[in-house]
UniProtKB/TrEMBL annotation:
PROSITE patterns: ANK_REP_REGION, ANK_REPEAT
Entry membrane topology: Multi-pass membrane protein
Spans traversing the lipid bilayer: 263-286, 322-340, 347-371, 383-401, 422-444, 488-509
Gene that encodes the chain: LOC115478824
Organism from which the protein derives: Microcaecilia unicolor
Protein name as annotated: Transient receptor potential cation channel subfamily V member 6-like isoform X2
Cellular localisation: Cell membrane
Domain of life: Eukaryota
ANK repeats: 78-105, 125-157
GO cellular component, as recorded: plasma membrane
GO biological process, one term: calcium ion import across plasma membrane
Signal peptide range: none
Domain Ion transport positions: 318-521
Catalysis performed (reactions): Ca(2+)(in) = Ca(2+)(out)
Length: 613
C-alpha cells in the first residue's frame, strides 16, 4: 500500500515539475498504474497540463492515450477534461495537440459545482470546450475548435449555448472580438433554433409542408422582433439571417401582399406633393419693383400678404400652399417620433434603415414653416428658404429608389460616398485650398486688382481656387499684362497637387466604394426592403394592415400564435415510402431568451417589379 502511494506521488510530482526522465521510467514500469487519481480525482494528464509541463504531456499522451478524454469526477470539478484545462490556460499548442490525438469536443462537459452559478462557483463558462474558449477570449483556440466541428448549438445543463454564455461576460472588448468570430456562423445557429420550433404539417415523398412559429420573429405588435434586430444592426453578418427560411418567406409574403402596394402609394403621393410645392413656388406672388427703389439687378419683389391673395389664380395657388404646409406637418409628426425612438446615431448612421433622408425630411418640414413665417412678415429672404426646401424636397425622392431592385443599391452608394469618401477627402482638400488661397491673395494684394478681379478679396480668391481645382478655368491673368513669375510656379504646384493627385484619389476612393457595395447589392437591397416593410407597418393606419401568416386556430395549434407555411423538398430516400399526415415537434426553447440574447450580441458591435426576396 505504501509502495503504491509512493509511486503515485512520484507520478504526480513528475507531471507537476515536468520531469521527463522520471515520468518515462515510471510509465515503462510494470508495477505502476498510470490511471491513478489524485485528491480531486484528477489524472496525471490533468496535472501536467495544469502546470504547463509540455514534454511530460506529450509523453503521457504517447504512453497512455486512454487518458485524453478522462474527466475529473469530484463534485467540485466533475466533467473537467484535459482539453478544458488546456483551454483555460490558453495553451494553443496543447489544445492543438489534444485535438489531433482525438480529444472529445462534443460530449465533454465540465459540470462540477465550481463551474456552475452558486456560492462555490469560481466561473461559469458554459461547460463545453467551445464556451470555455469563447469566455477566455482565445481567438486561435476558437478557430481550432470550430475547425474540428465543435457544436455551436450545444446547450449546457442550464440551457445556454455559447452565445448565451458569452453575453454574460463583463469584458466587452473581449466579447466583441469573439463575437466577430462566432457571428460568421450566426445564421446557421439561428437556423438550428428555428428548425427546433418547426412543425411538419404533412409530407408526401420528398415534399414536406412545414409550419414555422412567427412569435418574436414577425414585427406585428412586437417592437423588438428578430426583423427589427436585423434591420437595425450595423454588423454585416447579422444580415445573413435574411436567408433563414421562415424570415425569407415572411418578408417575401409581406412585400407582395402589403409592402409593395403601399410603397407605390407612398411614393406617388410624395412625388405629387413635391410637384404641387414646386408649382406653388414657381407662381409665388411677385410684383415689379418701383423705379428707383432698388438697384438695376432686381426687377421683381415679394408682394405683401394683403396683396398676395386677391385674384382667382391666387386662391388656386393658396390651395397648393395649404397642401404643402399640411404635408410638412404630417412629415414632421411622422419622422420626429421615429427618429427619437431609433436614436440619432442608429438612424442616421444606418444606410439600410434610412440614412440621412429622415433628417433631411425634418429639415424640409422646418423650412416650410420658416417660409410661412417669412411670407407673413413680407420678408424678401423667402426666396432663399424656398430654394433650399426645393433642393431637399426633390433630393428626398432618391429615398424611394430602395423599392426597386435595380436602383436600391445606388441610394446606399450615394450615402457612403457623400458621408465617408467625400467627407474625408474634403477635410484634406480644405486645408490645401486655404493654404494656396492665402498664397494667391498675398501675391495679388500688391497688384492692380482691377486687372485681376478674380483675386479682389479673400472670398473671391477661394472661389477662384475651387474653380482652378476642378479645371473649370485657367489661371485668370491677362496675357498682355506681365505677372510675377512666382504666380505661375505656385499655380503649377497647386494644379499638380490638387487637380492631378487629390482628384484622382477621390475617384479611386469612390470606385472602391462602388465595387464594395456592388458585391453586396442583393443583400443590402433585401435589408432595405425589410426596413421599408417595418416602416410601413408602423405608419399605415390600422385598418389597412394585414397580419402575415396563418392563424394557429386554423391549423389546430395555439389560438394566440401565427404561423407561416413553407414547402420544403428533401432528398428522397428509397424504401421509406410516403408519409402523410401531421407530425408535431415539441421544443422547450425559450424564444424570449433567444431574442434578448441576439439583441445583446448584435448591439455589442456596436423591385422595379415585385421580386422574390
Amino acid at each position: 500500500m505504501k509502495e503504491s502511494l509512493r509511486t503515485s506521488t512520484l507520478l504526480f510530482k513528475a507531471a507537476r515539475i515536468n520531469d521527463y526522465v522520471t515520468m518515462k521510467a515510471l510509465l515503462e514500469s510494470k508495477d505502476i498504474d498510470p490511471l491513478v487519481r489524485g485528491d480531486f480525482e484528477e489524472t496525471i494528464l490533468h496535472v501536467a497540463l495544469l502546470n504547463g509541463s509540455r514534454e511530460v504531456t506529450e509523453l503521457i499522451l504517447d504512453k497512455v492515450p486512454a487518458l485524453i478524454n478522462v474527466p475529473m469526477t469530484s463534485a467540485k470539478y466533475r466533467g473537467e477534461t484535459p482539453l478544458h484545462i488546456a483551454i483555460l490556460r490558453q495553451d494553443v499548442k496543447a489544445v492543438e495537440n489534444l485535438l489531433q490525438k482525438g480529444a472529445d469536443i462534443i460530449h465533454a462537459r465540465a459540470s462540477g459545482i465550481c463551474f456552475l452559478p452558486g456560492k462555490e462557483s469560481l466561473c461559469y463558462f458554459g461547460e463545453y470546450p467551445l464556451s470555455f474558449a469563447a469566455c477566455t477570449g482565445s481567438e486561435e483556440i476558437i478557430r481550432l475548435l470550430i475547425g474540428h466541428k465543435a457544436p455551436l448549438d450545444a446547450q449546457d445543463s442550464l440551457g445556454n449555448s455559447v452565445l448565451h454564455v458569452l453575453v454574460l461576460q463583463e469584458d466587452n472588448d473581449m466579447v466583441r472580438r469573439v463575437y466577430d468570430l462566432l457571428t460568421v456562423l450566426l445564421p446557421q445557429m439561428f437556423n438550428y433554433l428555428v428548425q427546433k420550433q418547426k412543425r411538419v404539417y404533412w409530407t408526401m415523398g420528398p415534399i414536406s409542408y412545414c409550419i414555422y412559429d412567427l412569435t418574436y420573429i414577425d414585427s406585428w405588435n412586437d417592437q423588438k422582433s428578430v426583423l427589427d434586430i436585423i434591420t437595425s444592426s450595423r454588423n454585416p453578418q447579422v444580415r445573413n439571417l435574411l436567408e433563414v427560411k421562415p424570415i425569407k418567406e415572411l418578408l417575401n409574403h409581406k412585400w407582395h401582399s402589403f409592402g409593395y402596394k403601399n410603397f407605390l402609394i407612398w411614393m406617388c403621393s410624395y412625388v405629387t406633393y413635391i410637384v404641387i410645392f414646386t408649382i406653388s413656388c414657381i407662381y409665388r406672388p411677385l410684383e415689379p419693383v418701383t423705379p428707383g427703389e432698388s438697384n438695376s439687378i432686381i426687377n421683381m419683389k415679394q408682394k405683401t400678404l394683403k396683396d398676395a391673395y386677391i385674384q382667382q389664380e391666387d386662391y388656386l395657388r393658396l390651395v397648393g400652399e395649404l397642401i404643402t404646409v399640411i404635408g410638412a406637418f404630417v412629415i414632421l409628426i411622422s419622422e420626429v417620433p421615429y427618429l427619437i425612438r431609433m436614436g440619432f446615431k442608429n438612424y442616421f448612421g444606418n444606410a439600410s434603415v434610412g440614412g440621412p433622408f429622415p433628417l433631411l425630411m425634418v429639415g424640409y418640414s422646418i423650412l416650410i414653416f420658416v417660409i410661412v413665417l417669412l411670407r407673413c412678415l413680407g420678408n424678401d429672404n423667402e426666396a432663399v428658404a424656398l430654394s433650399i426646401a426645393l433642393i431637399i424636397g426633390w433630393c428626398n425622392c432618391i429615398y424611394f429608389a430602395r423599392g426597386f431592385k435595380m436602383l436600391g443599391q445606388f441610394t446606399i452608394m450615394i450615402q457612403k460616398i457623400l458621408f465617408v469618401d467625400l467627407f474625408q477627402w474634403f477635410c484634406l482638400v480644405f486645408v490645401i485650398i486655404i493654404g494656396f488661397t492665402s498664397a494667391f491673395y498675398i501675391m495679388f494684394q500688391l497688384l492692380d486688382l482691377r486687372t485681376y478681379p478674380q483675386f479682389k478679396d479673400y472670398s473671391m480668391t477661394i472661389y477662384t481656387a475651387i474653380e482652378l481645382m476642378m479645371g473649370l478655368i485657367n489661371l485668370p491673368v491677362p496675357v498682355d499684362v506681365p505677372s510675377p513669375p512666382l504666380t505661375y510656379i505656385i499655380y503649377a504646384i497647386y494644379m499638380v497637387f490638387v487637380y492631378l493627385l487629390m482628384l484622382n484619389i477621390l475617384i479611386a476612393m469612390m470606385d472602391d466604394t462602388y465595387w464594395r457595395i456592388a458585391k453586396e447589392r442583393e443583400e443590402l437591397w433585401k435589408v432595405q426592403i425589410a426596413s421599408t416593410i417595418l416602416l410601413l407597418e408602423r405608419r399605415v393606419p390600422w385598418f389597412l394592415k394585414t397580419q402575415s401568416g396563418i392563424p394557429g386556430s386554423s391549423l389546430g395549434f395555439d389560438d394566440h400564435k401565427w404561423y407561416i407555411g413553407v414547402e420544403e423538398i428533401a432528398e428522397f430516400v428509397p424504401g421509406k415510402g410516403q408519409q402523410q399526415g401531421m407530425k408535431l415537434m415539441r421544443s422547450g426553447l425559450d424564444w424570449n431568451e433567444i431574442r434578448n440574447n441576439i439583441t445583446k450580441i448584435a448591439s455589442t458591435q456596436s423591385y422595379s417589379k415585385p421580386t422574390s426576396l
